[in-house]
Amino acid sequence: MTDSVFTPTRTETDSIGSLEIPAAAYWGVHTARAMENFPIARRPVSVYPDFVRAFACVKQAAARANLEIGALDEQRANLIDAACEEIKGGRLHDEFTVGVIQGGAGTSTNMNANEVITNRALEIGGHAKGDYSFINPNDHTNHSQSTNDTYPTAIKIALAFSLQNLLGELTLLADAFAAKGREFSHIIKVGRTQLQDAVPMTLGQEFNAFATTLREDVQRLEEAVALLGEVNMGATAIGTAINAPVGYKEAVIKHLRTITGLELVSAGDLVESTSDTGVFITFSGALKRSALKMSKIANDLRLLSSGPQAGFGEINLPARQAGSSIMPGKVNPVIPEAVSQVAYSVAGADVTVSMAVEAGQLQLNAFEPIIAHSLFQSITWLERACQTFRVNCVNGITANEAALEDTVARSVTVITALAPVIGYAPAAQLAKQALATNEPIADLVVAQGLLDPAQLEEILKPERLTGLPADHGVENTTEGAEAVPRDEMTSELPVVSSTE
Predict the structure, then answer these.
(1) For residues 324-357, b (16+ Cβ closer than 10 Å) or e, as one string?
(2) Enzyme catalytic residues
(3) Name one GO molecular function term (predicted).
(4) What whole-number distance in Å separates Cα of residue 142 and Cα of residue 435?
(5) Mode of pairing for the β-strands spanning 230-231 and 188-193
(6) With CB atoms counted within 10 Å of each terminal CB, which end of the chain scores lower, N or C?
(7) CA distances (Å), 114 to each of 40, 72, 136, 401, in order?
(8) 271, 363 in Cβ contact below 8 A?
């Protein structure tokens, strides 16, 4: 028989009744009830550290604004400010324990933030946790605020923070493809349309196209994040600014811009802004676009590397793990497969966001928690997918030059370059004959006297077939930003945090 361990507690009370809270906990009664009510995802909001940081930014800005307009005394405001600063720096994130899926339009998360900030502020000031007579989660930390303006504002700030890491990884991935474009710029291959042989190109051109399409998505995501700059701080419950003192709205936006470094502006119509979540559809759509284009690239790499004997076999992907428990020596394209699965999840999350945005009623959308979870998960998974795609796949790709050279030599695709000279109908006949006899097109053209060897050589020069000079290298026009992964990802890389 073992002795039970006694855990010291403190008693906290809300409008429903009293609960015993672990004495060491920084969260309080509202958070405790939320943990009881929403044991659904088994994932606390702390799995998204940028969301926690964003909430700390919002509460810090509110404390400074309330101090500036005289709505909060200097001692309490400074203690709240100091607690927020610590949370921005990464402290106490494990105290943000409410589940990512919750009812109440985010009230549980807002109260979790209020309680943690309040109890840390009390501790800094030499008071006991739970001494809410001195600093109260509602009356002081949440002063001039409502969940309905702090929660969506924190989502937007957190998305802007998180997106910087994703953009960095996307840029690095584009750079990796561009580097392969330069490496493969001299290798001629057969281009394909509808999975059928089309015309010659270089392997470098193919990889450069991958780089270009990813860079386009960096631009699209940058455009989408600009839309997140309009926030509704000061709107309070439904946009009428009830309980927000005169001057608070202007002051809180000013401080929030300074704290986050973001170009934030106050919404022109706070009632509309409080009820409208349409910006999240736009942002989600940009994430989906990027994810699906990455999946298309992943699928192309799987096709190009298929084999090694009975497939395309044009490139080799790095062998990452044994591919079968029954087939010895089999190696599968596991990294591209994982990337595509992330894309499917992002596409599904986009549907979830769309449905949640549509479901908002009257002056508030109660479903912002699932919007936030869907978007944060999509960004996190996309960033991780970009990194593993680059490090564990793209950087190690090699070309099967001998196989590609043989394929091009026997390919009838060069007939397209000859058609303007010898005519479409003769060219089509030659293509059929080459396919039937497996003879090179060049040999047939010369044998039939359609062109002499010198003419043929001039027409079939690699630069004429591909539209590029023979020594052309793919330019890497964009310098890759240093990508920084999520806290839960690669520990050896630092994490970007907002700075004043």
Answers:
(1) eeeeeeebbbbbbebbbebbebbbebbebbbebb
(2) 324
(3) aspartate ammonia-lyase activity
(4) 77
(5) unpaired
(6) N
(7) 22, 15, 9, 62
(8) yes
Per-residue pLDDT band at 425 (split at 50, 70, 90) = confident
Q: What share of the chain in percent tops pLDDT 90?
A: 72
Beta carbons within 10 angstroms of residue 315's beta carbon: 25
Ramachandran assignment for 268, one of left (phi > 0), alpha (psi -120 to 50 degrees), beta (any other):
alpha
Query: Which burial class, exposed, middle or buried, applies to 55 when counting CB atoms under 10 A from its CB (0-12, 13-18, 19+)?
Result: buried
Do 154 and 256 touch, CB atoms closer than 8 A? no
Q: Which two tokens stand for residue 261?
A: 């470094």
Q: What is the pLDDT of residue 481?
A: 40
Chain CA centroid to CA 417, Å: 43
The answer to which of 23-37, 295-309, 315-329, 331-345 has the lowest mean pLDDT is 315-329
Element (H, E) at 102: none
CA dist., res. 94 & res. 488, Å (int) = 13
